[in-house]
Amino acid sequence: MVEALPTLEYDPYAYETHEDPYPVYRRLRDEDPVHRNERLGFWALSRYQDVMDAFRDSARFSSRHGVSLDPDAFHDRAHTNMSFLAMDPPRQTRMRALVSRGFTPRRVQDMEPRIREITREHIEAFAGAGRCDFVADFAGKLPMDVISELIGVPREDRGELRTWADRVVHREEGVTGVPPAAAESAIKLVRYLQDMIADRRARPGDDLTSSLLVAELDGERLAELDIIGFLFLMAIAGNETTTKLLANAMYWLWRHPGERDRLRADPGMVPLWVEETLRFDNSTQALARLVTEDVELHGRTLRAGDKAVLLVGSANRDERIFPDPDRYDLLRDTSQSLSFGRGNHFCLGASLARLEGRVALEEIHARIPDYEVDSSGIERVHSVNVRGFAALPIEFPEASTE
């Protein structure tokens, strides 16, 4: 007698599935690509083309209620909605253009020497120990340091900002809303940013915050609330997602020794390591959208006012786009990956994340290429839409000298 498969349900709060949600995604794509979770009240889109189309269709799949799956954060008065991440065109388009006046590709590229310097400082702190928690000692520190350098946060304040950012996204088992610690940390971060902006108005510098204060398009400048929203987004999304990218890359390379051998033979493949990790196990697994009018999809009707969840992690494993999608392959063509979104909301920080990932992993691979993961100490984050490690202990021989 064949045992019946369990009832198929995608539940973003079922943290026990976060160790490997991809079998659930696979069943969704095969059996129920427009999946309804009646208990939590959302639709989940799991196939690549459906997720891509929703990213590009901001009229019917709106971001104006935010992108979080938490019910406390998905509405038109949520604190996250001060960010243009939670806006629709045409306002979002104009806001993005204004922010881009300060957050230029040249500004990002010019940071490479400093990113490499910070990376080496962190590696040097644990290189001789033969062991570290890759998250606590490296991946959890570098992104906030880089963002802080970019926006002008002094070194002595960065640890506190990192703590606030971690608390904003952390969720405990059974929590289906924004917990008090997360709300309190968000308020503290906003107040810090308000004070920093006031200081830059009085004493401008060469940081991004100062540039945003004077960014202008057709005589229009960013309002203070808009600047706070963008800096808040940088501190939360830019910190968390890059932290998870770095640790995910280390973990999956360790799990695939053949790919590590390829990288040893050709260290120039580090950018491919970054891109395949983003596709294979992306930091951002899901993003919410508000359905603004009735949409027919695969025989189901999404009604105006419904919540839709775009399963980016599932789309990046869709065999219709990526042959043998569950294979970790550094030589794969990842050009169709949706890890940074598409359309109006393509991630403005994608170039910075890629630069950080490349520089950090180049330096790590050069100094400690022969690490091993202590699987007994692994801990995963509890988060509704972010996937990654809270702890990743690694062991290695004494690091090579530069």
Give a verbal description of the structure.
This protein has 402 residues and is an alpha+beta fold. Helix content is 46%, strand content 11%. It contains 15 helices and 14 strands. It has a five-stranded mixed β-sheet with strand order 1-2-10-7-3, sandwiched between helices. β5 (216-217) and β6 (220-221) form a beta hairpin. α11 (224-255) crosses α13 and α11 (224-255) runs parallel beside α15.
The CATH topology corresponds to Cytochrome p450
Q: What is the name of the CATH superfamily?
A: Cytochrome P450
Separate helix tally: 15
Instruction: Please identify the structural class as seen in this structure.
Output: alpha+beta
CATH architecture assignment name: Orthogonal Bundle
Question: Which residues form runs of ≥5 with pLDDT under 50?
Answer: 1-5
Number of distinct beta strands? 14
Given this structure, which CATH class is correct?
Mainly Alpha
Portion in helices: 40-55%
Number of domains: 1
User: What's the overall geometry?
Assistant: globular
- Summarize the biggest pleated sheet: 5 strands, mixed
Please state roughly what percent of the residues sit in beta strands, choosing from under 5%, 5-15%, 15-25%, 25-35%, 35-45% or over 45%: 5-15%
State the order of secondary-structure elements, H for helix, E for strand: HEEHEHHHEHHHHHEEHHHEEEEHHEEEE
Q: Whole-number average pLDDT?
A: 89
Largest beta sheet: strand ordering: 1-2-10-7-3
Gap from first CA to last CA: 62 Å
- Rounded to an integer in angstroms, the radius of gyration calculated over CA atoms is 21 Å
